[in-house]
Write a structure and sequence with these properties.
The protein contains 4 helices and no strands. Helix 1 packs antiparallel against helix 2, helix 1 packs across helix 3 and helix 3 runs antiparallel to helix 4. It has 131 residues and is an all-alpha fold. The chain has a single domain, classed as Up-down Bundle (3 helical TM bundles of succinate and fumarate reductases). It binds protoporphyrin IX containing FE. The site of protoporphyrin IX containing FE (HEM) has 11 residues, from helix 1 and helix 3.
Length: 131
């Protein structure tokens, strides 16, 4: 058998033409990764701090309410909303709907930007309420 024969490669970033559907697919993967790493650590930290008493909880709260904590919280909210929108879009595609090119592109744009807009509104509400 011939070894080291050039084999066809799966199409990848350099082969597909960029479009909102590709950006949304990547965003779904990146946000899924952020949720299962950064958000998971933050969640465990919050629970452990709550279970460890007032001092530990105070230091968690100090960081969570600092500008850095708010930035991370906002980022994770965008990630959660974007990933959920990407997931719902996936389920629609999985039943065979939404493949017409214009429809597909439009929903990809919506799933990319609407979650960030909703996250901005939510955080504006949270920050203004606590101002
Ligand atoms: C905190 C909650 C969640 C975490 C930690 C999480 C994490 C992940 C991760 C790590 C992936 C794999 C990404 C990749 O490598 O391509 C993924 C994919 C996926 N998630 Fe989530 N997810 C969460 C919530 C959701 C929700 C709420 C939905 C649906 C509304 C959803 C739907 C999906 C779908 C459909 C995929 C597959 C995407 C693909 O095949 O390209 N996820 N998720």
């Amino acid at each position: 058998m011939q070894k080291n024969r050039a084999r066809p490669l799966s199409p990848h970033l350099s082969i597909w033409r960029w479009g909102p559907h590709m950006a949304m697919s990547i965003a779904n993967r990146v946000t899924g990764g952020a949720l299962s790493t950064v958000a998971a650590v933050a969640l465990v930290w919050w629970l452990v701090a709550a279970a460890s008493g007032p001092e530990a909880y105070d230091s968690f709260r100090d960081l969570a309410t600092s500008w850095f904590g708010v930035l991370v919280g906002f980022g994770l909210t965008v990630a959660m909303f974007t990933h959920t929108a990407g997931g719902l879009r996936h389920y629609v595609l999985d039943i065979g709907a939404g493949y017409e090119l214009r429809t597909n592109k439009n929903w990809a744009w919506v799933s990319l930007f609407a979650p960030t807009a909703v996250a901005v509104l939510l955080w504006a509400y949270i920050l203004l309420r606590n101002a």
